[in-house]
């Protein structure tokens, strides 16, 4: 029996469903199951972020200042995805985050080394750290010659005494090459009974990894090879705006080693972005450019003609975004992804579904509807790798701040340029400030999420993203719109209480 297409007409094709004049989001639609003839582990999630950048998993960390800085970029690359470092800071600060992420090889939240000059320096405080490292120059740009434990320093009667009187010498066992993986680092820690190791590259301190941090990762799913560029370093992206000054910012980022640049605008179909796309492609022809955000085929076509290597889709679909309410423009994310992907695929331009991702089912829907990857903000916010410190609520829950780049708080740091409002006297918020619960490390929950995505693809009879796209466009995969009652039925309901545990 031929199972390549449904033998009985049932449900709707995507073309018919999304041409009825309704703006659908992910929860509005549901895929009908197809035929399974392969195991879950046979599903391949490898994809393209842009024309020339390949990912092992279709996950992108959003360029938001409460989501992606150096640690998130490092962790996402180690998982096989990529992080886009935000631009809500100075150009030099953003470039430093990129350089930091690319210099790391260990994707765990390790120590930011504090250093003092040897041998006659002194220590004023430990700033919450357990160790201070003594280097030849007093900065991380030179060789480590010793270290001071906080307990030793606290026991000193005279805190101004020179370092050589109490610092501990660093033998060669304490320092390891910067590109050691977690297994190699763990072996050094155990063999030498150390509490930490210093990662060095060309006699420069790159990172400090503690035994406690390594122990904490042993229960995590095993990491693959990660997203590594031709230079042997993690691939890292960065966002810029569309102002003239962003050309100078881009120069700093290119020198720092970015692999892709994302033009960050809430409405990407503008003369400013089109001119910048042409500038980047002419000035840095080897650098992939991702344009957006767009939600219509007309917007997408303009940016494709300008030369983009990828498109970011979504307007007002994020959990902390209020653009659709404030400005009365936007589109339901499911419709936006399908429509833009339909035209982008004709030019071989990958689409990034940006926003509206709350669970693995949303990821499946975004990818099958035509996206090559999903960009996530709230899904990653609150994790160990996200910027910011945890706060503990009265009920004991740990939370981290999460804010929209269109919030007034973020705009005060410069994100108003993303909304073409940096010259306006009155700032109109298109986002809010909130908080999300502690999710733990992305190194743990993203692999579980990807396994759930694979199971979704298996139910649809799609063994890869490319297969899913082909099944959708051929009309083989069928969809239906869900009523409000159907959406309730599809979730947890009818229980007095339940325990939710994702992994």
TrEMBL record:
<dbReference type="InterPro" id="IPR013785">
    <property type="entry name" value="Aldolase_TIM"/>
</dbReference>
<keyword id="KW-0963">Cytoplasm</keyword>
<dbReference type="GO" id="GO:0005737">
    <property type="term" value="C:cytoplasm"/>
</dbReference>
<comment type="function">
    <text>Catalyzes the conversion of inosine 5'-phosphate (IMP) to xanthosine 5'-phosphate (XMP), the first committed and rate-limiting step in the de novo synthesis of guanine nucleotides, and therefore plays an important role in the regulation of cell growth.</text>
</comment>
<feature type="binding site">
    <location>
        <begin position="377"/>
        <end position="378"/>
    </location>
    <ligand>
        <name>IMP</name>
    </ligand>
</feature>
<feature type="domain" description="IMP dehydrogenase/GMP reductase">
    <location>
        <begin position="24"/>
        <end position="493"/>
    </location>
</feature>
<keyword id="KW-0129">CBS domain</keyword>
<comment type="subunit">
    <text>Homotetramer.</text>
</comment>
<protein>
    <recommendedName>
        <fullName>Inosine-5'-monophosphate dehydrogenase</fullName>
        <ecNumber>1.1.1.205</ecNumber>
    </recommendedName>
</protein>
<comment type="similarity">
    <text>Belongs to the IMPDH/GMPR family.</text>
</comment>
<keyword id="KW-0658">Purine biosynthesis</keyword>
<dbReference type="GO" id="GO:0003938">
    <property type="term" value="F:IMP dehydrogenase activity"/>
</dbReference>
<comment type="pathway">
    <text>Purine metabolism; XMP biosynthesis via de novo pathway; XMP from IMP: step 1/1.</text>
</comment>
<dbReference type="GO" id="GO:0006183">
    <property type="term" value="P:GTP biosynthetic process"/>
</dbReference>
<feature type="binding site">
    <location>
        <begin position="314"/>
        <end position="316"/>
    </location>
    <ligand>
        <name>NAD(+)</name>
    </ligand>
</feature>
<keyword id="KW-0560">Oxidoreductase</keyword>
<keyword id="KW-0332">GMP biosynthesis</keyword>
<dbReference type="GO" id="GO:0006177">
    <property type="term" value="P:GMP biosynthetic process"/>
</dbReference>
<dbReference type="InterPro" id="IPR001093">
    <property type="entry name" value="IMP_DH_GMPRt"/>
</dbReference>
<dbReference type="GO" id="GO:0000166">
    <property type="term" value="F:nucleotide binding"/>
</dbReference>
<feature type="binding site">
    <location>
        <begin position="264"/>
        <end position="266"/>
    </location>
    <ligand>
        <name>NAD(+)</name>
    </ligand>
</feature>
<dbReference type="GO" id="GO:0046872">
    <property type="term" value="F:metal ion binding"/>
</dbReference>
<dbReference type="InterPro" id="IPR015875">
    <property type="entry name" value="IMP_DH/GMP_Rdtase_CS"/>
</dbReference>
<feature type="active site" description="Thioimidate intermediate">
    <location>
        <position position="321"/>
    </location>
</feature>
<keyword id="KW-0520">NAD</keyword>
<feature type="binding site" description="in other chain">
    <location>
        <position position="316"/>
    </location>
    <ligand>
        <name>K(+)</name>
    </ligand>
</feature>
<feature type="binding site">
    <location>
        <begin position="402"/>
        <end position="406"/>
    </location>
    <ligand>
        <name>IMP</name>
    </ligand>
</feature>
<feature type="binding site">
    <location>
        <position position="319"/>
    </location>
    <ligand>
        <name>IMP</name>
    </ligand>
</feature>
<dbReference type="InterPro" id="IPR005990">
    <property type="entry name" value="IMP_DH"/>
</dbReference>
<feature type="binding site">
    <location>
        <begin position="354"/>
        <end position="356"/>
    </location>
    <ligand>
        <name>IMP</name>
    </ligand>
</feature>
<dbReference type="Pfam" id="PF00478">
    <property type="entry name" value="IMPDH"/>
</dbReference>
<keyword id="KW-0630">Potassium</keyword>
<feature type="active site" description="Proton acceptor">
    <location>
        <position position="418"/>
    </location>
</feature>
<feature type="binding site" description="in other chain">
    <location>
        <position position="318"/>
    </location>
    <ligand>
        <name>K(+)</name>
    </ligand>
</feature>
<keyword id="KW-0479">Metal-binding</keyword>
<feature type="binding site">
    <location>
        <position position="430"/>
    </location>
    <ligand>
        <name>IMP</name>
    </ligand>
</feature>
<feature type="binding site" description="in other chain">
    <location>
        <position position="321"/>
    </location>
    <ligand>
        <name>K(+)</name>
    </ligand>
</feature>
<dbReference type="InterPro" id="IPR046342">
    <property type="entry name" value="CBS_dom_sf"/>
</dbReference>
